[in-house]
Design a protein that fits this description.
The complex is a heterodimer of chains A (179) and B (476).
Chain A (H helix, E strand, L loop, with lengths): L1 E10 L2 H13 L5 E4 L7 H5 L6 H27 L16 H23 L13 H6 L4 E6 L7 H10 L3 E9 L2
Antiparallel strand pairs in A: 1-3, 1-4, 2-3
Helix pairs in contact in A: 3-4
Chain B lengths: L1 H12 L11 H4 L10 H13 L4 H27 L14 H12 L1 H12 L9 H22 L6 H5 L15 H34 L3 H10 L7 H34 L11 H27 L8 H32 L2 H12 L3 H13 L7 H4 L2 H28 L14 H24 L5 H6 L12
Helix pairs in contact in B: 4-18, 5-7, 5-12, 5-17, 6-7, 6-11, 6-12, 7-9, 7-12, 7-18, 9-10, 9-11, 11-12, 12-13, 12-17, 13-14, 14-15, 15-17
């Protein structure tokens, strides 16, 4: 069954993209996005993208990593199998610092990468826009705007006119095969 | 006097012929690209390498390097089956080429993360042309490095109980108070984080290749590994945040790794090892050797893969400046070690350093000093910093010099023990040489595979710094 993905159009000028993003948002659209070959500075503000919670995930994971490393070194050395080596204390913070640091970094890095992809809903090997030639160009040399059909403001005719008035080229409605 | 001031101003702005201060530095600074490449040029140049057929030269080189790697693997098997007695290690030199090679390869692996993390935080735009390849070298070098501590245990199949926190048959744990164990955590964390950092950077570029792929099978591979990246700005937002966090935590990480490697020596009581200068000295040396290797391979790669437009003499010159700065730090450390040995008043300390420079291993010591301290002084001259052939030759000297640095630290500190009755000399066997040559072969093989099948430039990052690629009002 064919379904409407929404309306898409091309931009070539980064300044125009920023202006268009602000206008689309002002017109009340929320489910829209720009597909760009590289991150454009200032586009987040223009589109009104909320700051991601990712740094908090990273911080939390880092704290967990530090706790795990401390517990691991204390429990194995001082509780499970206490063994005096070279007359040193069974557990002390100073020699534990390197491993606490390394596991903090390790946990934080894994959570950052996994968290970033998870928040982005990736991996997902299907996109409504994937067969559209605009989408194909978006990872090459064009800035592609997409307005989703399930946005409350969506109206095929009006949305097209809006995008065209903002300078988008080759504006058209895109359909996709729904499995 | 006026002329001097004018000249000074011009130099600091890095321009020929002067310029008014009303112009932003970016506009009068030497450009990072030759000509004015567009977005599509970047896609075409980088994808072209991946999509084209390998050349005869590539096949010839990889045959040679993988043959070398195979020979290395055979000799590793021979070592494991026979025992490490097939190496030249003896009493008192219990650590020899194995640990030398380990530290050497870990050091090579430091340029990649320095470029991708530290230079990112410092907003050094020139890093984008070389970070992908340098990060690849990091990962491959760490793979080569990891081989040595594992095989030097002699019985690698039980090394898991000595290296990882797993209780052995007596319910005993690893010794967390030993720097050797810190090293296990440092190196494995470094490998994991570098590999993830590299992969995150690759995802958008692999999506570019996916969108271009004609062959169904090839397209399926790129689709799978690019995780369905769409380039949506809401995704880029989190992506950039993740990249920043990774850069932020990788910066102390990269400094910690060689610090902890140096603890393997510094925490011991051996004269020549037990010094507080080791952590910064090792880190500077690691960056020095890493940039040496990056230059050796990138000067060749930019020529063979036609990347001259994106990796210009400006990039080579910047790398040479880093090389010189870290080389001077290493030279300072060599000098300071001698001063402290004398100043400590400890006769054993003094003996080790006099013996290092004038004893049986003086040939190794002076090779090291020549390669690492004397030869890089040529980079004081701008036309040498920008000369590709001379730079390439110097980078080879740096690679050799840094291998010798690790050999000198290890062998000269051990070979004349506290009592003359336990003095010795290390001579490598054919197995020692073969295993090291094998890791060189492995490193080059992996690099050749990378250079052919993976985008060698960070496509999306290079696009983001092309002139005019960013909205004008955000341009500072």
């Amino acid at each position: 069954m064919k379904k409407t993905a929404g309306v898409t159009g091309l931009f070539h000028d980064p300044d125009q993209v920023l202006k268009a993003a602000a206008e689309i948002r002002r017109a009340g659209y929320r489910k829209f996005d720009f597909h760009t070959p590289y991150p454009l500075h200032g586009l987040d503000d223009a589109m009104g993208v909320k700051r991601t919670v990712l740094p908090w995930i990273s911080l939390g994971a880092g704290i967990v990593g530090a706790a795990v490393a401390t517990h691991l070194q204390w429990w194995t050395g001082a509780v499970d199998y206490p063994l005096v080596i070279g007359g040193k204390p069974l557990f002390a913070f100073e020699p534990s610092i390197p491993i606490i640091f390394e596991l903090t970094v390790l946990f934080c890095a894994i959570a950052t990468v996994v968290g970033m992809f998870a928040l982005n809903g990736l991996p997902r090997w299907f996109s409504k826009w994937q067969d559209d030639p605009h989408f194909v160009r978006s990872m090459d040399d064009a800035f592609v705007v997409t307005v989703d059909a399930d946005d409350a403001q969506y109206d095929a005719g009006k949305t097209r006119t809006l995008l065209e008035s903002l300078g988008a080229e080759q504006v058209r409605e895109v359909e996709y095969e729904d499995q | 006097m006026k002329n001097v001031t004018d000249r000074h101003r011009q130099d600091s702005w890095d321009v020929e012929g002067g310029g008014s201060l009303a112009v932003s530095p970016d506009e009068i600074r030497e450009p990072l690209f030759e000509g004015t490449p567009g977005l599509r040029d970047v896609t075409e140049t980088v994808s072209g390498v991946v999509e084209g057929k390998p050349t005869k030269l590539w096949y010839a080189t990889i045959t040679l390097t993988s043959g070398l790697a195979a020979w290395g693997i055979l000799t590793i098997l021979y070592t494991v089956v026979t025992g490490i007695g097939v190496w030249g290690n003896n009493q008192p030199i219990g650590w020899a080429w194995d640990i030398t090679n380990f530290v050497f390869w870990i050091g090579i692996g430091h340029a990649g993360t320095l470029i991708s993390a530290i230079l990112f935080l410092f907003r050094q735009k020139w890093r984008t042309a070389i970070n992908r390849a340098a990060e690849a070298m990091t990962i491959f070098a760490v793979i080569c490095a990891l081989i040595f501590p594992i095989i030097h245990t002699g019985r690698p199949w039980v090394a898991v109980y000595w290296l990882l926190p797993l209780p052995n048959q007596m319910e005993m744990w690893v010794n967390f108070r030993s720097p050797l164990l810190w090293d296990v955590f440092a190196v494995s964390t470094y490998f994991t984080v570098s590999a993830m950092f590299w992969y995150v950077g690759l995802v958008p570029d692999m999506a570019t290749l996916r969108n271009r792929a004609k062959n169904v099978f090839v397209k399926r591979i790129w689709t799978f590994v690019s995780l369905g990246w769409t380039g949506a700005n809401r995704h880029w937002h989190r992506y950039e945040k993740a990249y920043l966090i990774l850069a932020g935590i990788s910066t102390p990480l990269v400094l910690s790794v060689h610090t902890i490697v140096s603890f393997d020596f510094a925490v011991s009581v051996i004269p020549g090892w037990h010094t507080t200068i080791f952590p910064p000295y090792f880190v500077a040396g690691a960056i020095f050797s890493g940039f040496g290797m990056v230059l050796t391979l990138m000067i060749l790669a930019r020529k063979l893969l036609n990347l001259e437009q994106f990796i210009t003499r400006k990039h080579i010159e910047n790398m040479n400046k880093v090389l010189m700065a870290t080389g001077l730090m290493v030279g300072y450390a060599y000098g300071m070690e001698f001063f402290i040995a004398w100043y400590s008043g400890n006769p054993y300390e003094r003996f080790v350093f006099i013996n290092r420079a004038f004893g049986p291993y003086s040939w190794a010591y002076w090779t090291m000093v020549t390669c690492n301290v004397f030869i890089p002084q040529l980079f004081w001259f701008k036309n040498i910093r920008r000369n590709l052939i001379i730079t390439w030759v110097i980078s080879i000297f740096v690679n050799i010099g840094m291998w010798f640095e690790r050999f000198v630290i290890i062998a000269t500190s051990l070979h004349r023990d506290f009592l003359p009755s336990s003095w010795g000399y290390f001579i490598p066997t054919w197995v020692d040489v073969s295993i090291f040559a094998g890791t060189v072969g492995l490193f080059l093989t992996l690099f050749l595979l990378f250079a052919k099948y993976i985008p060698v430039l960070a496509i999306s990052e290079v696009k983001g710094i092309l002139p005019g690629s960013q909205p004008s009002h955000t341009h500072h």
